[in-house]
Amino acid sequence: MKCFVCNGKMAPYFVKKHPSGLVSNYYRCSECGLTIDKTIYEMSEQERVNLNNFNHSTYQGMDFNVVDPKWIPRLEKQSEFINQLLILDIISSDMTIVDYGCGDGKLAKFVNEKCNMNLISNYDKYMKISDVSYLTDDDMSPNMADMVITCSVWEHLIGKNDVENIYLYLKEDGIFCIHTLIAEEIPKDEDWFYINTNGAHCTLWTNEAMKIWFKTHGFVGCIYHLESQMWLLFKSSEKFNKLKNSMEKISGTVAVSNEFVDYWKQKPYRK
Fold first, then answer.
1. pLDDT at 85
2. Which end of the chain is more exposed for a tag (fewer CB within 10 A), N or C?
3. For residue 116, what pLDDT is reported?
């Protein structure tokens, strides 16, 4: 089995039995450390959709999630950060900004309220929320978006096609925004908090895997905002330099690099 990021060899890493009875077989790349749940990868698409809906539908529309207790405060920090991008003219009201995999649309709600405009559009391929304001599958087309936001999405994607399909919506000079857990190394620990999700988190990213993906897709700059736990990946040197030159105006801790910002080095355990 080959790694879809670096083409390295993937080998068995460890096994976890979830409370639901599902048994996850985790495989790890010997080169970049990307770790996947082979059990989930081998499911049919409908089985994966059912699994994700089962794991996420219980807290959609609510203001608390026992698995991720910092969910709402983090969304609020993310909305503040996105509002700062608007104030600094990195993004603007005439741009097409899509929250891909938006779920119940809380991030867009917080952002749009803070900015006092409909800045972000919602789209979710799998969780079909009854909201006519959401973009439909027919609304989505290649190179349509100035900015694509993926908040708690990357850990659910299955292989190269899923990742590429999201990336293709981005314009040539667009900004890719990611919130997920990216670690120096995926711990060999069946009790790790990030996989206590009944198999929903099936692709676990390392710094090395993201560095490779970053270079492969021609990004020229990266910024990480600690409080919102968001990475911005830039295709345009002009946009990247504009934000880099305005960093002192951004509240919070910001790290910047011409490569992927590998901010988290310690073991990724929740305190």
1. 96
2. C
3. 87
For the residues 196-205, what does the mean pLDDT come to?
88
Q: Which residues touch 164 (CB under 8 Å, ≥6 apart)?
A: none
Rg (CA), the chain: 18
CA distance 94 to 248: 25
Distance CA 188, CA 193 (A): 12
Amino acid occupying residue 43: M
d(CA 180, CA 72): 15
From CA 75, how far away is CA 71, in angstroms rounded?
6
DSSP 28: E
Partner residues linked to 255 by β-bridges: 224
Residue 225 binned pLDDT confidence (cut-offs 50, 70, 90): very high
pLDDT of residue 148: 98
> Strands 120-123 and 97-100: what pairing?
parallel
Global pTM value: 0.91
196-234 burial string, b = 16+ CB within 10 Å, else e? ebbbbbbbbbbbbbbbbbbeeeebbbbbbbebbbbbbbb
Phi and psi dihedrals of 52, rounded to 5?
-65, -40
